Please model this.
Amino acid sequence: MNYDLIVIGSGPGGYVAAIRASQLNMKVAIVERAELGGICLNWGCIPTKALLKSAQVYKYTQHAADYGIQIDGTATANFEAVVKRSRTVAETMSKGVQFLLKKNNVEVIAGFGKVLPGKKVEVTHTDGTQEVFEANHIVLATGARSRQLPHIQQDGKKIIGYREALTLPQQPETMVVMGSGAIGSELAYFYATMGTKVTIVEYLPNLVPVEDEEISKQLERAFRKAGIKVMTAAAVESVDTTGDGCKVTVKDSKEKITEIECDIVLSAVGVQTNIEGIGLEECNIAVERGKVVVDDFYRTNCDGVYAIGDIVHGPALAHVASHEALICVEKIAGLNPKPLNYKNIPGCTYTSPEIASVGMTEKAALEQGREILIGKFPFTASGKATASGNRDGMVKVIFDKNSGEWLGCHLIGENVTEMISGVVIAREKGVTGREVIEAVHPHPTLSEAIMEAAANAYGEAVHI
Model:
């Protein structure tokens, strides 16, 4: 069969590419070897957020008296039911993607896709049979998987990745989490809130190391308050799984060795691209440091073949993959999309407190030699945060002292992931610090803290 476009992979990059191409009157097929929606929808973003919501509800029940609510008896967490709900949420969303693909007349081809020379795609079905399809354009959107450390291989039982962490048959009493990026921090928080004794080990000096240092320090304080043992500037040297559980050997920056016994080790040390066996070698497609080389519109060096999402440069985030998909397909269709501004990509971590950020950290701005203005507003001074019963966190804004350019914004607190989009739009449109102050923000809201932080940067804060 001949198509205008074949997409390999149905994650947030792949299915968005397929649907947008169909909207632009292309004949489209999408190849997927597993569940529609990819890792994000089935084994990442969505089911993790469902688990975290259950943990939040459980935490609320433990503090109901703080809100004047009396609960007779003790609230208990049914771990199996929590996991089941998470899987139901993921399955619901996967069916939603299936509906959208069908609605947009995208043909779904089940199997493992491989690009071949001459604009062809070979699909190996689950029964081993193969078919070859032709397309004018082919988009590779094969995503990534949990990264394996050579000396600490995941066995799926005692040393696990994020997939197993989402579906453990029973809750472990103790757990060591390797890595404190979004995946490690979110799952560490979930298990700790559910009652597991958690130790998190981070190789770098701060938790969530891509974030502004002040934000990282606040998360560390919140984790310690929640009973999570935090070990930064430390590395897991080895894991002995010969006994009933795991014996974890950790070495810190001062060469001190600590041994920790636990039931489960969760390896959350990043992701690895799925580029093996998809035809890169056969088509002589350029790869650099494990990622496919593309231009601003995601064209590879092989005519008619494109790549988006986790397998190309840039942050491995679902919303990035989706925007890359739109740009790539619209360029194929002859439209004139703007290249993606990778300096204005928001990042979110759904711990409690949540973290959201965009743009430069304070350290990065200073390293660039910028003269900067920094403004901060703590949620302890927020009426909405006080009324909600959760005053942890702050807003931190960074402006260029001379031009007023909004260099960065960093938030930690309840629901701050819902606040960052407005900052992204403002930065994209060149809004200055003075203009943030002049814009009326509704009261009482958490989002007015952004305006208050901007006022603080200019020495005009009223409420702190």
